Amino acid sequence: MQAENIQEYQNNDFRILQVVRNLDIGGGQEVVRTLAENLTNFGATTIVCAFEDGPLRKEIESLGIPVVLLPKRKYSVLAFPYFIREISQIREKLAELINQYNINVIQTHLLRILNLLTISLMNTRPDLLVFWTFHNARFTLREDHLQQNRWLLKPKKWFYRMLDLKAAGRVSGYIAVSEEVKQALIDEIGSIGDNVTVILNGVDLRRYVPEADKSEMRKKLGLASESKIIAVVATFKEQKGHRFLIEAASSLGKNFPGLQILLIGDGELRGDLEKQTRDLALNETIKFLGIREDIPDLLSVSDMFVLPSLWEGLPMALVEAMASGLPIVATEVSGSKQAIIPGKTGLLVPPGDVQELEKAISFLLTQPELGEQMGAAARIRAKEEFSAEKQARDHLDLYRRCMAKRVSY
User: Fold this and answer.
1) By three-state DSSP, how is residue 269 classified?
2) Are 170 and 132 in contact (CB under 8 A)?
3) Same-domain status, 170 and 242
4) Which of 7, 50, 194, 204 is the most buried (most CB within 10 A)?
5) Threshold 0.90, pTM exceeds
6) Which range marks the domain in which residue 335 is found?
7) Residue 290 region by backbone torsions, left for phi larger than 0, else alpha for psi between -120 and 50, else beta
């Protein structure tokens, strides 16, 4: 980061509490880590708090950023007395943090209904700003969010919508990670367009560097040195569309002997995806690597990145792949189509279309020079549009505008 850029933002009085659902490995959580680090680099005081611990905690704390665990939720609204007591305890802990660190900005991530809790905290101090961040175009309550009592979906959606409409006039601002997410917010809540700011996810380019000699690093990671390697970094859930890639891999494995597809991540559909892989006799082609902390290394030795999502916000994994200089095959869904320039930094295919997905991957596998050109262009685009420094500056600019507006009243 340039010294003059740091100095431009260094003298600020922002003390920011970043609140996230958990500290697992995931796109939204990586946004929190990256944002916390770079806001701190620009001179802001940053604290991260979460309801559940996870592997990112150690990494965030190693940056000198405090991490606080909130009381973990146990009760649904069906157990109303316990639910109210639990929410009161969480609010009390957040109020303590506001006083302890003299917080004047709260920013939430992945909280859904608990976003509303932060609005009540605005009574604790007159200059407190509250921003809700939305990472996904399909952010409303869905059936897959309710593991039990799915009959509650419709009444809960109605109830949440009423609360969102009521809170719309109080929240300091909505942050959307892409234009499509912004439009989804407006469609769901109504006339809040002036209060929604699009801030694109950013990535630390220093962590993602294309590997000059892939063979040595592949050997170190236990990967075949001569194979074509495709990386997929995504949680195993319906949204990410892994099953379509596995289906496409039937033809890919036959046409490209030695091809390895690395599925990096974990999630609720892992058992189903492993069964699909066995049923199609693809165990030699598809490798389930689980949750990894060496994702930059895995990306650096890959030949291509694929993300077959059915919907998105602005996927961090895709931006990380761009920063790694990889050509990309992704689906033409919100966020992905904002990041990828078709034919220049990668290829876009219709979501859920196995045939087109297989065709695009095959094309790039047979055109390695074109793939290298796309990867180089993708890294340049990541540097220009999706840098961590730009993301932090855009947030600080938003905080300042809203703080100035608050003072002028």
Assistant:
1) coil
2) no
3) no
4) 50
5) no
6) 206-385
7) left
